Amino acid sequence: xxxxxxxxxxxxxxxxxxxxxxxxxxxxxxxxxxxxxxxxxxxxxxxxxxxxxxxxxxxxxxxxxxxxxxxxxxxxxxxxxxxxxxxxxxxxxxxxxxxxxxxxxxxxxxxxxxxxxxxxxxxxxxxxxxxxxxxxxxxxxxxxxxxxxxxxxxxxxxxxxxxxxxxxxxxxxxxxxxxxxxxxxxxxxxxxxxxxxxxxxxxxxxxxxxxxxxxxxxxxxxxxxxxxxxxxxxxxxxxxxxxxxxxxxxxxxxxxxxxxxxxxxxxxxxxxxxxxxxxxxxxxxxxxxxxxxxxxxxxxxxxxxxxxxxxxxxxxxxxxxxxxxxxxxxxxxxx
Amino acid sequence: xxxxxxxxxxxxxxxxxxxxxxxxxxxxxxxxxxxxxxxxxxxxxxxxxxxxxxxxxxxxxxxxxxxxxxxxxxxxxxxxxxxxxxxxxxxxxxxxxxxxxxxxxxxxxxxxxxxxxxxxxxxxxxxxxxxxxxxxxxxxxxxxxxxxxxxxxxxxxxxxxxxxxxxxxxxxxxxxxxxxxxxxxxxxxxxxxxxxxxxxxxxxxxxxxxxxxxxxxxxxxxxxxxxxxxxxxxxxxxxxxxxxxxxxxxxxxxxxxxxxxxxxxxxxxxxxxxxxxxxxxxxxxxxxxxxxxxxxxxxxxxxxxxxxxxxxxxxxxxxxxxxxxxxxxxxxxx
Amino acid sequence: xxxxxxxxxxxxxxxxxxxxxxxxxxxxxxxxxxxxxxxxxxxxxxxxxxxxxxxxxxxxxxxxxxxxxxxxxxxxxxxxxxxxxxxxxxxxxxxxxxxxxxxxxxxxxxxxxxxxxxxxxxxxxxxxxxxxxxxxxxxxxxxxxxxxxxxxxxxxxxxxxxxxxxxxxxxxxxxxxxxxxxxxxxxxxxxxxxxxxxxxxxxxxxxxxxxxxxxxxxxxxxxxxxxxxxxxxxxxxxxxxxxxxxxxxxxxxxxxxxxxxxxxxxxxxxxxxxxxxxxxxxxxxxxxxxxxxxxxxxxxxxxxxxxxxx
Lengths: 335, 334, 310
Known about the structure:
The complex is a heterotrimer.
Chain A: E1 6-21, E2 26-42, E3 46-50, H1 57-64, E4 72-77, E5 80-81, H2 87-93, E6 97-100, H3 114-124, H4 130-143, H5 160-172, E7 178-182, H6 190-207, E8 210-215, H7 218-224, E9 227-232, E10 235-241, H8 242-247, H9 252-260, H10 266-271, H11 302-306, E11 312-315, E12 318-320
Parallel strand pairs in A: 3-8, 3-9, 6-7, 7-8
Antiparallel strand pairs in A: 1-2, 1-4, 4-5, 9-10, 10-12, 11-12
Helix pairs in contact in A: 3-4, 3-5, 4-5, 5-6
Chain B: E1 3-16, E2 19-32, E3 36-40, H1 47-54, E4 63-74, E5 77-80, H2 86-92, E6 97-100, H3 104-107, H4 114-125, H5 130-143, H6 149-152, H7 162-174, E7 180-184, H8 192-209, E8 212-217, H9 220-224, E9 229-234, E10 237-243, H10 244-249, H11 254-261, E11 312-313, E12 319-320, E13 324-325, E14 330-331
Parallel strand pairs in B: 3-8, 3-9, 6-7, 7-8
Antiparallel strand pairs in B: 1-2, 1-4, 4-5, 9-10, 10-12, 11-12, 13-14
Chain C: H1 22-35, H2 37-54, H3 56-59, H4 97-133, H5 135-150, H6 153-164, H7 168-195, H8 198-205, H9 210-246, H10 258-265, H11 274-300
Helix pairs in contact in C: 2-4, 2-11, 4-5, 4-7, 4-9, 5-7, 6-7, 7-9, 9-10, 9-11, 10-11
């Protein structure tokens, strides 16, 4: 993996949404949805981004794909900083990075036929038209396991899984290098989730695609990702390869997440000692001081309440943002 | 075995614009005192409609319970829930049968404080004074793990987080010490860490209150640590029903096998390709004449397209509706 | 016969293999209409009024202006003294009320139709601009529109009618302009919603520019709600036109319109009630039909409410 080239580099990305208040509508604060996130993704790799609702994982994805302006920080795609691109330059870059959305129904215009939806990016980029476009659409539909004759149908005639396949066909139409998958399977039934995940993996192999896979379901993220970043309240808590994240997590939050995931094994579940976090994640409009996790952390020390922990490389390739994290396992929760 | 609920040959249909939706097609099962029965299936499997039919919660029209019986054993004797009037059902719901739904926000009244809502359930079903009800409400809030119950008594639903709201809904469900609690995807809308809290709470409550529970979900992962028995539904029918260990270790229906294969395992190091069930769920507008799973089944043979498989026993508690014997690898002998 | 649907292939989605023909679609629409009986009534009423307006010279038994003083104030056929030669009776000048009601539909439909077209066009333009550009433009435009909406409507109309004089064109213009804020407001709301929708975001990801987004994504999704609104507004305009006519502010009295007929009949409310009640019933009939139609359209035009195969 290491010899692969770096495709995407995110440096200290911040997305703050202003809060307006008072009679005059002045800015009274900000929701720090993403607050200083940095990572890289290599070509052909899948980076999983997990976290609970409101942790900023989707906003991170949207800021990378330039659907959301970043407040600060830079995003390098293939070596160029794309946060400064505007207008035509940005539109020309768009086909190289595509997005697969969570709700496959909301992202398909109910009044457009499937053929039009799938072919839209090609048409907009002026790459194809007429018969050639029609053939390409048919090919794309076949590629994602749909009947090419469906091109004339409308989104409401399809099931959730089929709609997500349409969304994937559309994203693939312009031969992107990089795809942000924003919770692409959360709205689907279990048996259909497996279909979509398998399809995404097949396509990755076939076209050497690079994915940022955003999800709240840890087990699916582990299944599809090479490396995983765990987010909490706008910050990355831990970042490492998938097996290490599950077998040897350093950050207490990752350990709690692992412990919360149910396994489909009744015997194991009965024996399993789990560590259950108390309370809910705090509001990103009013994050705790110091380490944002300190209000729920069982290992909290005084330093955590005042000092913001940096994301440090504890082992080669294994990053954690915790004051206690070290090679001796001081940040491990005893069960 | 002490059966608290016996459902027999339940059939529910919806008369819609597109035709008749055959939502539940002859479902029979028992619920025992104090056990947790998980009903697992994907959307359109009839898992929710089955349970909602029992307590008169399906919208009528277009829905209609066509036939069947649901014998509920109470202190007053055995009653058939399907024969009760709407008024009698209201008495049962919230009284002897409690509910927890997926979205806590829509099951709570936004303009009443949570304390008032719990109190209302208590005074409606039990013969107690307002004073007593208030004291009981505060006890209930503490019981479901809400910190500062006296203070939270006066809180409105919007002031609470999703997890706290679901705890309030649970408090309402258990307020009258019901014999049965029906939970319809109660953790689907919650975050993983909060989901773990709620499952933990349910386990704890069930042990202390000894109530029977029906847990409806699409996720076999959640069920493993929670259920005593699991009932897998497909196309409005029961595909397989078994004690939880049997179901995970010796799944006998190809659909159950597929569902288990579709789950990624955290306990295995190598990530194998997921086993997916190809195709889409059955069209319930078509009246069922053969095995509803045949179209997606790897093992389907000619008989599966001709006949409807009935639930047949495999072990003392394990029953499956399939003509194919997975263990022997061929059609099942009669 | 059990083998009819034998299908061992694992081709997903075999459910959808059956092609949907136009015949299927028409049948589906017919079923939708049949299911909602009040929709059928609405469609029938609306079409009957439009037909009356279009074909008045062929349908009406008499010239609506022809006076026949010997036969004045003849009661409708079901009352004592009524006769089949004037089924709904005659007015104080002996004019046939049925014929006048049929011709009166022309004024109502013309005012309603063109009034709505003007209001909808103006409203759509203003609302789209406010909704799409947002920010300060939005605040200013919407502030102005709210101001317009807060004016006492009738007073406003009376004033303009007094200044511009009585003519069909003036009535249409007044209605078109004064009703446009409602269309603007609905348009703006829809534009805001659609702009944030997933499919617009995904069009942006595909490299779409804003003119394309407006034409290909926003407008087609606006049409459903606007047609529904237009139906209700047309009904309201027909109603208000009659009101203006009654006050003597609409078309000149020489033109047969329902409002004018109401006004003329007022004097005979005690002696010849039918002169005023017949046009009143015509107004009621039309507005009932159009409201039923609007309710039905609201359900039919929303693709999200159309049940999918799954």
